[in-house]
Amino acid sequence: MIRIDGVRRTYRSRGGDVEAVAGVDLTVRAGEIYGVLGRSGAGKSTLLRCVNLLERPDAGTVTVDGVDLSTLREADLRAARQRIGMIHQHFALLSSRTAAGNVAFPLEVMGVPRRQRAARVAELLDLVGLGDRADAYPAQLSGGQKQRVGIARALAGEPKVLLSDEATSALDPETTGSILTLLRDLNQRLGLTILLITHEMEVVKRICDSVAIMTDGRITEAGPVHELLAKPDSALARGIFRLGPPPALDDTTVVDVTVVGDDTLISDLARTHDVDVRILDGAVETLAGGRAGRLRLALPGTAAANAAALDHLRAAAVAVEVHP
Ligand SMILES: Nc1ncnc2c1ncn2[C@@H]1O[C@H](COP(=O)(O)OP(=O)(O)OP(=O)(O)O)[C@@H](O)[C@H]1O
C-alpha cells in the first residue's frame, strides 16, 4: 500500500546540513498498522511528511496505493493528498470552528454540497464516538476528544491510508489507550492502512502489526513484530522484554527463550529431559492482541551437558539465546 524507496531528505542551514532521512526503504502492506519507532530527532516526522509529499524528498520515491506521488502535478497531488488522512500530536484543529465545523472543513475544500456535508459530518463524528459533541469548540473538549475530531476530519476524504504523527504523545495513558483502541477499530472496520510514528514502545506493543526502528535518519530494523521477536539480537525484542544482564552462575546454563502464545515449553522440557529448570526472570506482554514472552531459565550443568535440552528449546521456542 505504501512503498518508500531510497528516500533522502537533508535540511540545509547556515549552521550546517542535517540529513534528517538518510536513505530509507520501507513497505507497508494494505490493512496493517505500521509503526516507526525512534527517539526525538531520529527523522520520523520528516519521513512521515515525505509520504504525502508535505516534504519533498531530495532522492527516492514514495508510492501510495500504486501511484508514485513524485510524478503528480500539483492539482493531482492535492487530490491524492485528500485520500491520505493525517493526524497530529497537537491535533491542529481550527479553534474558531466547532467539532462539526472542523470535520466539515476538508469536505468544503473538496466541494461537497452542504446537505451531503452535514450528513457525512454526523456520520464521521458518530464513527469516532463524538456524535453528541458536534457543537463544542476545541477549547471545550478534552485532549482525547480533540484527537477524535482530528481522526474524524482525517477520514473525511475516505482515505485508504492514515498517517499518524505522534497522535497520542500529548495524551495521558488512559486516553492514549482509548485512542489506540479507536485506531485499531477503524483499521479493522474500514480496512484502513495506518502508518504511525512514535517514540513510545507502548504504542508499538498495543497496536502495531509491523515496526521499523529509526535511528539517525536510518532504519536499523524492520518487519512484522512477531518476526522481530524471534530474532535474539533484535533491539525491539530487547526493548519490549527487558531482562537486564544475565547472572554468572557456576556450573549452570543460563538461557533466554522467547515464546509466543500459550506455551507449555517449560513443563515439556522438565518432563522430557528430567531437568530441574528454574525461571530466573521473565517478561510477558500482550502484543497486537497475542501473548508473547521472554523467559530467562537456569539449567543445572554446563551447556555441553544440556545439549539435548537446548536442542529441545531451539525446536520449540521462537528464539533461544544461550549465555556463555
Ligand atoms: N525544517 C527544518 N529545518 C532544519 N532542520 C530540521 C527541520 N526539521 C527537522 N530538522 C532536523 O532534522 C532532524 C530530524 O527531525 P524530525 O523532526 O524529522 O525527527 P523526529 O524523529 O520526528 O523527532 P521529533 O519527535 O523530536 O520531531 C533533527 O535533527 C531536526 O533538528
Describe the fold and architecture:
The radius of gyration is 24 Å and the shape is elongated. It has a six-stranded mixed beta sheet, with helices on both faces. It has a four-stranded antiparallel beta sheet with strand order 2-1-4-5, covered by helices on one side. Strands 12-13-11-14 form a four-stranded antiparallel beta sheet. The chain starts with a strand and ends with a strand. A hairpin with a 2-residue loop joins strand 1 and strand 2. The model has no long low-confidence stretch (mean pLDDT 92). By secondary structure, it is of the alpha/beta class. It folds into two domains: 2-229, P-loop containing nucleotide triphosphate hydrolases (Rossmann fold), CATH 3.40.50.300; 241-323, Alpha-Beta Plaits, CATH 3.30.70. Helices cover 34% and strands 31% of the residues. It has helices spanning 44-51, 74-82, 99-109, 114-127, 143-154, 173-190, 201-207, 225-229, 235-240, 265-273, 307-316, and strands at residues 2-13, 16-28, 33-37, 59-64, 67-68, 84-88, 161-165, 193-198, 210-215, 218-224, 252-260, 278-287, 290-300, 319-323. Adenosine-5'-triphosphate binds at residues 11, 13, 18, 20, 38, 40-46.
